[in-house]
Amino acid sequence: MSAVMSTVTIYHNPACGTSRNTLAMIRNAGIEPTVIEYLKTPPTRAELEGMIRQAGLAVREAIRENGTPYAQLGLDNPSLTDDQLLDAMMAHPILINRPFVVTALGVRLCRPSEVVLDILPSPQQGPFAKEDGEVVVDASGRKVSR
């Protein structure tokens, strides 16, 4: 299992329910990931750019608006370049949307949290329900379709 343990990293905010649910699903697969509390230890600019690119996102799609200085900084201005947006994310890590999960199978911004199921190297070990009670994995460890 140690090989699997070292292949999953979550950029986590413990105050975020989506991030907590994602971490719990990783652990439900029998994996203890590397947990990086990105507000305390932000990724480097190169790491952030790489995760955004590997996740197939535009830089603007990786910015969190709610509960951040997004509006005060004028980041809704469509003329801002990716470099300017990345500068803001590096200066204010709270602007980095969460949680990003990195595995050998890919990188995803796990919103909703069950997106993580697509890139975990191990199957779910049993049922899983989010903090709000929504069941996302059945008793057989299979993703529940909606």
Describe the fold and architecture.
A four-stranded mixed beta sheet has the order 2-1-3-4, with helices on both faces. It is built from four helices and six strands. The protein has a single domain, classed as 3-Layer(aba) Sandwich (Glutaredoxin). The protein is elongated. The protein is of the alpha+beta class and 146 residues long.
Measured distance between first and last alpha carbons: 31 Å
Low-confidence stretches: 1-5
In round numbers, the mean pLDDT is: 94
Estimated helix fraction: 10-25%
Instruction: Supply the CATH class.
Output: Alpha Beta
Compute the number of structural domains. Answer: 1
Number of helical segments with 4 or more residues: 4
Question: Measured on Cα atoms, how large is the radius of gyration?
Answer: 16 Å
Taking the sheet with the most strands, its summary is:
4 strands, mixed
What's the CATH topology label?
Glutaredoxin
Inertia-based shape:
elongated
Q: Helix-strand pattern, N to C?
A: HEHEHHEEEE
CATH architecture: 3-Layer(aba) Sandwich
Q: Name the CATH homologous superfamily.
A: Glutaredoxin
Task: Using brief descriptors, characterize the structure shown.
single chain; 146 residues; alpha+beta; Glutaredoxin; two-stranded antiparallel sheet; 4 helices; disordered N terminus
